[in-house]
Design goal:
Blueprint (H helix, E strand, L loop, with lengths): L4 E7 L4 H12 L6 E8 L3 H14 L4 E7 L6 H11 L4 E6 L3 E2 L3 H12 L3 E3 L3 E3 L17 H6 L8 E4 H6 L12 H12 L2 E3 L5 E4 L6 H7 L3 H13 L6 H12 L10
Parallel strand pairs: 1-2, 1-4, 2-3, 6-9, 7-10
Antiparallel strand pairs: 4-8, 5-10, 6-8
Length: 264
């Protein structure tokens, strides 16, 4: 339980207090060996320097790297890839600057990976509004199995830890053509083909201010959302369960052998 964990945080620097809350939640974790990689997307050099200065001042004795992706485009997938390239840890995790994690989050997930000898561990996120109040319904009654995951994502960007070994073995990167559900496509080959641990305790918080995430809402009117979904459907087809696999998973559900998410 002392292997280096790299946590990659994406930010555009719009809310320094939220960013600090996210980082504080990382360093409050009981897992003992964490490096932070802050990836800032934007062309404002002064803002990048402010982030670097303020974060370094608060956590001056922590392992922190700062990366700037100088663009005004939406390059969220590239931001994650830049973080992956810089990461030194044997475990990798991600966090957006408006979300946060509980103190036992990383320890829980890494313990599950090491105990069960898996490639990835995840939990279901607590969904909260901008004030931190619970927002029920997003994952309610979802089955935690391959059939459900192929249909729709239930693993948020910060609710999992993955091993560097499986990333390198599968040569995984985030698809830079995607600005929506980029984490879902990254996870598909692992979840559908490799060994995965599910931890029932919800130890992370997914902050959304509307029924759907801000990203999905922002793209709806432009028509880009539909374009992104079409691309995603094309890219994920290679992981589609076979008929027998579907039958087997549905049978397990009928027998009560599949975990089903209670009201969140």
């Amino acid at each position: 339980m002392n292997k280096l964990l790299s946590v990659i945080v994406r930010t555009m620097g719009k809310d320094m207090e939220l960013l600090k809350k996210a980082i504080d939640s990382i360093f409050r974790n009981t897992y003992p060996n964490i490096e932070l990689i802050v990836v800032f997307q934007g062309t404002d050099d002064a803002l990048f320097q402010k982030i670097e200065s303020e974060v370094s001042a608060v956590w001056e004795y922590r392992k922190i790297q700062f990366i700037q992706n100088k663009t005004d485009e939406d390059e969220r997938s590239k931001n994650l890839n830049l973080g992956l390239e810089a990461a030194k840890g044997l475990y990798i995790a991600f966090l957006d600057d408006d979300d946060y994690v509980a103190e036992n989050h990383y320890k829980n997930l890494i313990l599950a990976i090491e105990k069960e000898k898996t490639d990835l561990a995840f939990c279901i996120a607590n969904v909260v509004d901008e004030k931190g109040q619970p927002k029920p319904g997003l994952f309610e009654e979802r089955y935690i199995d391959k059939l459900s995951f192929y249909k729709d994502n239930f693993i948020t960007i910060h609710s999992f830890v993955v091993t560097r070994e499986v990333i390198e073995r599968l040569d995984l990167k985030f698809e830079e053509r995607l600005q929506l559900a980029e984490d879902y496509l990254f996870l598909l080959p692992i979840y559908m083909k490799e060994t995965v641990s599910f931890v029932e305790e919800r130890s992370c918080y997914y902050r959304i201010v509307s029924k759907e995430s801000q990203s999905f809402t922002a793209y709806e009117e432009s028509g880009k959302r539909d374009q992104q979904y079409k691309l995603l459907k094309t890219l994920r087809r290679q992981y589609k369960p076979y008929f027998f696999q579907k039958w087997f998973m549905k049978t397990k559900r009928l027998l009560g052998l599949v975990y089903q998410v209670a009201e969140d």
